[in-house]
Amino acid sequence: MLVYEEHDPGFFVSIGLTENRRFILISTADHVTSEVRIIDAADPAAAPRLVSPRQAGVEYRVHAQGDEIVILTNADGAEDFKIVRVPAASPERANWRDWVPHVAGRLIEQIACFADDIARLERDNGLPRIVVSDGDGIEHEIAFKEAAYAA
User: Fold this and answer.
1) Of 54, 58, 117, 118, whose CB neighbour count within 10 A is largest?
2) Are 19 and 44 in contact (CB under 8 A)?
3) Which CATH architecture has domain 12-141?
4) pLDDT (tens digit per residue) in 9-45
């Protein structure tokens, strides 16, 4: 049974799981554009659902927490990226809602979802920061003793 076939030779395809192992991810991307399909891991024979169709220059990475999909994206002009949340049952872009808004000059590089918290690695004024947000949106930064450091 064919699950997915990529027809554009310029796109790479990868498969993985969300951190909570709830969704199988089929990710396709070139260097500036991405597209992700999800399959509920409890029903691996289900057809993949498209999160957002590829749009030139728009990148996004899919994570999951509880009944929501958490997405790191540069959509809507968020050049330095933002984080959006969407119900897993309807992950289409029309349902995305900003959770950590775009701030020019603050590059969000990665996120990791845990049962109750989300950690993000970002660069602000050239320095990396690790910020942890709980389910209520309360944030704290992991402090480092030195003014310059690598994280």
Assistant:
1) 118
2) no
3) 7 Propeller (2.130)
4) 999 999 999 999 999 999 999 999 999 999 999 999 9
How far, in Å, are 120, 142, 149 from residue 145 at the CA level?
A: 19, 10, 9
Q: Which residues contact 133 (CB under 8 A, 6 or more apart)?
A: 100, 117, 118, 119, 120, 139
Residue in 135, 13, 120, 26 with CA at minimum distance from that of residue 73:
120
3-state secondary structure 53-114: CCCCCCCEEEEEECCEEEEEECHHHCCCCEEEEEECCCCCHHHCEEEECCCCCEEEEEEEEC
Give tens-digit pLDDT for 60-75: 999 999 999 999 999 9
Q: Can you say whether residue 19 is alpha, beta or left, with left for phi > 0 and alpha for psi between -120 and 50 degrees?
A: alpha
Q: CA nearest 64: which of 87, 36, 37, 35?
A: 87
Torsion angle, alpha carbons of 128, 52, 5, 40, to 10: 80
Q: Which residue is associated with the tokens 């690790």?
A: 130
Strand order in the sheet with 68-73: 60-65, 68-73, 82-87, 97-100
